[in-house]
Amino acid sequence: MSVILETRNVSKHYGDYRALQEVSLTFREGEVVAIVGPNGAGKTTLVNVLTGLLKPTHGSVLFRGTSISGVGPVRLAKLGMARAFQLVHIFPELTVFEAIASAVISQQNRNMDFWSNAQSIAPLRERVEQVSRIFSLHNRLDWLASNLSQGEKKLLDIASAFALDPQLILLDEPTSGISSSDKRGMMDTLMDAARKAGVQTMLLVEHDMDLIAEYSTRIVALTEGRVLADLPPKEFFADPHLAAVIVGKPPVEMST
Ligand SMILES: Nc1ncnc2c1ncn2[C@@H]1O[C@H](COP(=O)(O)OP(=O)(O)OP(=O)(O)O)[C@@H](O)[C@H]1O
Ligand SMILES: [Mg+2]
Question: Which residues are paired to 57 by β-bridges?
Fold first, then answer.
């Protein structure tokens, strides 16, 4: 399968602190990659570097062979990459409909004027309803985002990323803040959404080892900013040392 995203010798320093050190990773179509590691390992920093939000101190990030350093989120979405955040990232004053619609509009490269004419509003409405249905938000379209529950806000953030119609999606702790009995439901929803939306590659930061074992095709383990392991789940879990390093510290549900 062809390469979709790649880091070459990426380091990221915050002052003297080395949050990422010489990280070289290749992500391909068809993969569901779990990024794991103890708190502070550099997972969010890696996601931020992969999405161009942070510029690496050294090294480069290539999306389909093109450097994405300094590419903003709008252009990145047009190239085919979208993300959802560890801390929920919504505009509280928008309705659910407006939040998803703005993602659809930005992807379709149309401005509000275009969408406000009667002919184009129907496909927009249809697309928003389609996306909202996948995430069970279709009964909340006229709600203000600020009135949603924490779990629904998380779904809205992720739905907005899927509405960008990406080839690759990065999700930073999609199941954090969701009760353990609902985590599997969230993962099923994500997998279903990815299949329906034709998402080629999914990268997710996740702490729950059972979910990772069940849903990922590959595990990248970070510790202290370095890649400790990059293995299929079977091989990863066959090495008790690896799992111990990753879960050595209790997973923290609260976002940092
Ligand atoms: N803007 C920043 N300035 C200084 N240090 C930072 C900054 N952002 C992160 N760090 C530090 O870099 C390290 C890696 O942080 P990062 O958020 O990438 O970890 P993480 O693996 O996502 O952790 P968690 O599981 O808690 O979300 C941490 O020690 C953190 O304190
Ligand atoms: Mg993090």
Answer: none
Task: Please identify, by atom number, the ligand 1 atom nearest to the C-alpha of residue 173.
Answer: 27
Q: 188 with 102: CB under 8 angstroms?
A: no
Please report the DSSP string for 185-200 in residue order: HHHHHHHHHHHHHT--
* Domains detected in the chain: 1-80+167-256 (3.40.50.300), 87-164 (no CATH)
Ligand 1 atom with minimal separation from the 42 CA: 18
Strand-pairing partners, residue 13, are 18
Cα–ligand 2 centroid distance for 256 (angstroms): 7
In short, whether 251's Cβ falls inside 6 Å of ligand 1 is no
What is the pTM (predicted TM-score) of this model? 0.89
Residue written as token pair 């708190």: 39
Q: Using alpha carbons only, give the angle 6, 3, 234 rounded to the nearest 5 degrees.
A: 90
Please name the residue that has the structure tokens 């119609």. 165
How many Å apart are CA 63 and CA 201, to the nearest integer? 12
Residue pointed to by tokens 């979709």: 4
CA–CA separation, 175 and 55 (whole Å):
27
Q: Which residues contact 213 (CB under 8 A, 6 or more apart)?
A: 233, 237
Contact 25, 230 (CB under 8 A): yes
- Tokens representing residue 163 in the block: 């509405």
Q: Cα(90)–Cα(157) distance, rounded to whole angstroms?
A: 6
Question: CB–CB of 199/167 below 8 Å?
Answer: yes
Q: What is the DSSP string of 30-82?
A: T-EEEEE-STTSSHHHHHHHHTTSS--SEEEEEETTEE-TT--HHHHHHHTEE
pLDDT tens sequence across 6-62: 999 999 999 999 999 999 999 999 999 999 999 999 999 999 999 988 999 999 999
